[in-house]
Specification:
By secondary structure, the protein is mainly alpha-helical. It has helices spanning about 1-15, 50, 55-65, 65-70, 75-85, and strands at about 25-30, 40. This is RNA-directed DNA polymerase from mobile element jockey-like.
């Protein structure tokens, strides 16, 4: 359930519904095989705390979400699309 909550929070941040003061700014990255809202995790070698920070923790999951989910018009719609995707519903 933490993963779902992280994805919902990232959706709110990306849509401007929530503001966060970042230790380091959220980096947009080029979409490799994902959507246009692709984010790049911070490269961390020795600091376990930074490696598990929100933006690093959520980046891999966020980048796997299809455009049809990312483009949800509201938070509730995003939640439903995430849940449908996890259960395999269309």
């Amino acid at each position: 359930m933490r993963a779902r909550g992280d994805l919902i929070e990232m959706f709110k941040i990306k849509k401007g519904l929530d503001t966060v003061q970042w230790h380091s700014s959220l980096q947009a990255g080029p979409p490799r095989s994902g959507h246009r809202g692709h984010i790049r995790p911070e490269l961390v070698k020795d600091c376990l705390i930074r490696r598990n920070a929100f933006c690093n923790r959520v980046a891999r999951m966020w980048n796997k979400i299809p455009d049809s989910v990312i483009d949800a018009p509201s938070v509730n719609s995003f939640k439903k699309r995430i849940d449908d995707q996890r259960t395999g519903c269309s």
